[in-house]
Design goal:
Length: 259
């Protein structure tokens, strides 16, 4: 078992995305180069609703772009940190558009402010036969486990994944985003985690941070539409991607280097 990784990169460096196992498309980006790139790729493609980017587009445009790139999987719109609103949004979307998206794998996202609500949201989607995979965001924080923002988010997701692991009925999980490379190293032991997407490799490279020296996320956020790396930063990004694959995915490879 190897966790599949999606590397999210800016439009100027889409070749870095090809170093991942799968591709992750953000539907709010209305750029012909970006859309053409995804359309041409044969790798497994996930189409994201861009709600986390606070760039949600209307359902019809979202479905149209998702179909334009021939996505294999669609992430149904959710509502950040709100369980009931997320489930209502899911019901509304499926009622209106299920026939347009049922040929794809359907990913739903669990949300909530409290741990019980988040787990109940997961259980709700497990029962729905139309749902193929369940997304677990990187920034759910029902518990106060650390004063440092990203460490707190990471520790919370570890708690949530551990709670899911104890359920009798499970569906595969996709980890939405990443707080730290360490997070993948900790979570890779759970074989129900199928995949992860993140901008972290490229975001860190943009601030000249190598994963081997990683402490916390840099303040500078990666702008997918404008940010450009210099040659040294491209090297760092490639090194970070390789590091992430070793720590999170390629278990056998990591074991080989230890022996």
């Amino acid at each position: 078992y190897i966790m599949k990784l999606a590397i999210i990169s800016s439009i100027q460096h889409l070749d870095l995305s090809l170093k991942g196992d799968i591709l992750y498309y953000l539907s709010h980006i209305d750029n012909p180069i970006y859309i053409k790139f995804f359309r041409q790729q044969k790798k497994y493609k996930i189409s994201d609703n861009s709600i986390h980017e606070q760039k949600e587009i209307d359902y019809q445009t979202f479905i149209l772009r998702t179909k334009t790139i021939n996505a294999n999987e669609i992430i149904i719109p959710d509502h950040m940190k709100e369980t009931r609103l997320t489930i209502n949004k899911y019901k509304d979307f499926m009622k209106k558009h299920y026939n347009e998206v049922k040929h794809m794998n359907i990913q739903t996202v669990i949300q909530g402010k409290y741990l019980d609500d988040i787990i109940d949201c997961y259980k709700y989607y497990v029962k729905d036969k139309r749902v193929n995979i369940i997304g677990v965001p990187f920034d759910l924080t029902p518990l106060k486990l650390s004063n440092e923002k990203y460490e707190n988010q990471m520790l919370n997701r570890i708690v949530i994944i551990n709670k899911i692991s104890q359920l009798r009925n499970k569906k595969q999980v996709h980890l939405l985003g990443l707080n730290s490379p360490l997070e993948l190293g900790i979570l890779k032991k759970y074989d129900f985690i199928r995949s992860n997407d993140s901008k972290l490799s490229v975001r860190c490279a943009l601030s000249n941070i190598k994963f081997k020296d990683y402490i916390t996320k840099p303040n500078k956020i990666l702008d997918l539409e404008v940010d450009k790396l210099n040659n040294e930063q491209i090297k760092i990004a490639n090194g970070n991607i390789k590091y992430l694959k070793q720590i999170g995915g390629e278990k056998n490879e990591a074991n080989k280097t230890e022996n």
